[in-house]
Amino acid sequence: MNDTVRIGIIGGGLMGREAASAFGRWFVLEDFPARAELVAVCDLQDSLLNWFRKVPTVKLFTKNHRELLAAPDVDVVYVAVPHNLHESLYLDVLAAGKDLLAEKPFGIDLRAARVIRDAAAKSGRFVRCSSEFPFLPCTQRVIAACQPEAIGKLGKLLEIRSCFWHASDLDPTKTINWKRQNKFCGEIGVMGDLGMHVAHVPLRLGWRPKRVYAQLQKIYTQRPDGKGGMAECDTWDNALLHTDVDIAGQHDVPMRLEMKRLAPGATNTWWVEVLGTDGGIRFSTAEPKSLWTFTRGKEQIWQRVDLGHQVPFPVITGGIFETGFPDCFLQMWAAYVAERNSFLKGRFGCATPDEAVQSHELFAAALESHVQKKVVTLA
Ligand SMILES: NC(=O)c1ccc[n+]([C@@H]2O[C@H](COP(=O)([O-])OP(=O)(O)OC[C@H]3O[C@@H](n4cnc5c(N)ncnc54)[C@H](O)[C@@H]3O)[C@@H](O)[C@H]2O)c1
Q1: Is 110 exposed, middle or buried (0-12, 13-18, 19+ CB in 10 A)?
Q2: CB 317 within 8 A of CB 333
Q3: Of all protein residues, whose CA lies closest to atom 15 belonging to ligand 1?
Q4: Of 47, 89, 109, 320, which one has the fewest beta carbons inside 10 Å?
Q5: Ligand 1 centroid vs 326 CA: distance in angstroms?
Q6: 217-272 per-position pLDDT tens digit
Q7: How far away, in angstroms, is 177 Cα from ligand 1 center?
Q8: Region 168-195: what's the mean pLDDT?
Q9: CA distance 241 to 214
Q10: Is the pTM of this model over 0.90?
Q11: What is the dihedral angle through the alpha carbons of 95, 97, 99, 100, rounded to the nearest 10 degrees?
């Protein structure tokens, strides 16, 4: 396979430009046997297309995604558009014979996610779903501590929490956008927005919820429309999913997934905690280099270690420096290219289409649970 992966972006908004930033500093990856080059961009907005003119490798600027998909020099397409467009655009990418890094939630609902997953399998193209927090150094340690051969050290498992919290929606004067309207974002609301991020690590560890009881909240039902009026804000703001999972022979371990747009003070705070009778492990992006571990000896001790920049795909950045969002996003892209080009070598890979569908199965069950106020069993 050619060692330059030529990438096209459909949707040059918040995430499309974040991806451009990752490709723009690809050279910081050490001994990485493939180059990523951004060659084409599609967005509907002139101002965004113009922004991409600062990227010297981009040769094609278009408002028509079919033009981008017809370009023979595009190998991989990253699609970062509102959720109501995922299904049709992802299917178009596959029909054009391109590989795909799809943004979450991988379709607006479970039906769409299954259609995309099946089309991806049929196409034979390399398809993954975006989820970057597993690539942070501390998350990598959490994942290592939770492998089947390691988790026994934690003793009898008490509980797991996997959470993603935002706060800016606490401000009722924040203007509405597509992420706060069901017709663009989906009936699953905040679960579509934040859910893949909390589900990815548990699903990869094989912790598939058997049952779910969901508490969903709509707190602000209207928001300023940005034109002097008010608009309906009909998405779920906060979601608490109480589930139970079987882990390494231990049954019905409580696992809570929390997706919140109204979490006081939390700016993109992704965190995970696994607690047992003998040990525990905890990481939050609020403390980006600090990993907390619990041990029970004569005394019970929570201790902190600062990990620095110990990323799975080595970069020139000094080992003592902190990691942040752009770093794990670059690492996620490195994992995508490494797996596509067959040199992942056992490292953690991007979320698979099956995992994306499993997350949607959970969110669909959560909706049912909330409406009927009952526990829903998952297949
Ligand atoms: N991985 C993450 O951490 C993360 C963070 C935020 C958003 N997302 C996901 O990324 C996706 C996009 O979110 P965003 O925050 O970048 O949104 P955004 O609104 O900032 O950008 C979306 C862009 O898509 C463009 N667009 C709409 N229709 C189009 C079409 N037909 N063809 C080409 N471009 C079109 C819009 O003009 C806009 O610029 C969503 O799926 C969202 O859930 C992921």
Answers
A1: buried
A2: no
A3: 14
A4: 47
A5: 17
A6: 999 999 999 999 999 999 999 999 999 999 999 999 999 999 999 999 999 999 99
A7: 11
A8: 97
A9: 5
A10: yes
A11: -20
Give residue 2's pLDDT band: very low, low, confident or very high (50, 70, 90): low
Continuous H helices in the chain? 14-24, 46-51, 65-69, 86-95, 110-123, 137-145, 182-185, 190-204, 325-340, 353-372
- The tokens 């030529």 sit on which residue? 6
Other CB atoms closer than 10 Å to residue 160's CB: what's the count? 24
Question: CA 57, CA 39: separation in Å to the nearest integer?
Answer: 5
Closest by CA to 305, choosing from 290, 318, 317, 324, is 290
In degrees and rounded to multiples of 5, residue 157 shows phi and psi of -75, 130
Distance (Å, whole) CA 233 – CA 180: 6
14 lines ligand 1 (CB under 6 A): yes
Q: Specify the pairing of strand 290-296 against strand 230-232.
A: unpaired
User: What's the rounded Cα separation, in Å, for the pair 70 and 64?
Assistant: 10
Ligand 1 contacts CB of residue 314 (under 6 A): no
Place of tokens 């526990």: 375
**Is residue 69 within 6 Å of ligand 1 at its C-beta?**
no
State the distance from the centre of ligand 1 to the C-alpha of 14, rounded, in angstroms.
Answer: 6
